[in-house]
Known about the structure:
87% of the residues lie in helices and 0% in strands. It is an all-alpha fold. The model has no long low-confidence stretch (mean pLDDT 81).
Amino acid sequence: MNAENNEIHDTEDHALNKELVAYLDGELNRDGVSRVEDELSKNAEYRLRLMQLQQAWDLMDELPRVSSDESFTKSTVELIVVSAESEANETVVRRKTWRHVIWVIGLLSATAAAWGGFLLVSQFNNRDNQELLRDLPLVQEIDIYDPIESMEFLKQLEASGVFDEELDDAI
């Protein structure tokens, strides 16, 4: 519970400081100035915080001004330019790398699609060849089977047991 109160207090202090800093910097519109001045007339804590911030401002005005020479400014600008060029070069390299990656992925996808198409067509064409290989013994003996006029005749021969005799002889 205490941590929550501290958080709320910190948030309120931050908002108060922000408003008072804007007041000291002259960044508030007329309504904002009126609101701050009204609060200053009513609230002692508010006045105290404004005085503390004003003292900090006054102390910063007393700090010695450091002037930088032309070489410091030049070297700082050069560092910024070098940094910007480096970032620009990295961006260009990243873009080129991604372009290459996209091309490689596209090429691999096209190759996979072509390979898949080849396998599909090959399997379809191979089906006819497999059927021919299965029927090869029949095709090799086509001259023997050619005189047979119908399947009915073969069924009658099988029913009569003619083929059984040939099987017994073969064993």
